[in-house]
Design brief:
Layout lengths: L1 H20 L4 E10 L8 H10 L4 E5 L2 E6 L3 E4 L17 E9 L2 E8 L8 E9 L1 H31 L13 E7 L5 E7 L2 E5 L5 E4 L2 E4 L5 E8 L10 E5 L7 H6 L4 E7 L2 E10 L4 E15 L2 E10 L8 H17 L2 E2 L2
Antiparallel strand pairs: 1-2, 1-7, 2-3, 3-4, 5-6, 6-7, 8-9, 9-19, 10-13, 11-12, 13-14, 14-18, 15-16, 16-17, 17-18
Amino acid sequence: MSAIKTLLLLCFTFLLISCSSQEKESYWKVNDIYRENKEPFRGLNGDLMQEVVDYNFHFIKRNDSLFFELPEKFTIDIKKLKNFRQLQIPNKDYYEIYANEFDGDAFKIKFKDNATLSDSKNTILEFTKLSKEKYVKSINDAVLRQKEMQKKVENLKLELVKNPQIVLNPITKLPQKTDTLINNQGREILIKTPKEIEIKESGDLKNQVFGNIKIGTLKDRSIIYDLHHKENDFGLKQLTIWMSTDTTAFNMDSFLARQPNILTYKRDKNSVVGYEIVFDESSNQAVVQSLFCLKYYQIENTHIFIYGDAYRSQMKNVDNKTEMNKILNFNYLLSENISIAQ
């Protein structure tokens, strides 16, 4: 009899240990993003933060693993969550994750926003807990919504091919001078530039990603040059020269092929003019987010990107199409008058 009691006790003990070691599944969806001190986001920074929320993350938590189902399927070990690339966001390396925690029905990813000059950098990406039924419904609704949004983006692309919003002026040859750029390794690179501009190393906090090449004020192997013009100053929308000695290869064909929201308007080898298209939730329509021009050179181990874009959200009290074309034409004129000195 005592042997049976002992066996039952052992079985009961094993069952308790087994149950405690295997946590039930829980279901989570992204809910909000905000500064830890509740300070509101300002200007373009708010748009960049909204881009993170728009990934519409959904995941299932099992023990220490997060099984994401949206925006795509991938798995993260919660103890090893260190950067936004693990969340399949490739162009947010200036967001530095320093902690994460489950707090009741909330899961918080805490990170420093190193892309802002604001004193308030600590930011929280917050998820909310759902029932399984609400989670499944949210996933299904999101898939249908994504198909609807993508269809509208594709329809806008077709419309832009038929009726372009870009109106490019003929390029004129500007008087030239020779300038010297210095890469992050101290090597001099001679370029031909218009006499009417002055090139200075940027003092602004800037970040840009070209394929797998990340260039920024706080990034290694990077240096950024601003182009100053006496009569025209478009601020962050103005053409900029981005340089990097990153060992990653860059190919314009591959870069454009991997950017589903980019539509090329004009291309001449490694010089491109085009649209960036996004879906605007407020209007429930696909819209032209920006007009851009991009020109690429590689001199030995140095990547040189001559890039400028005009974002619709940066336009204040003016007609978006008119002002964006004005800035695009200015940037494109300068870009086409910049070349490597032979």
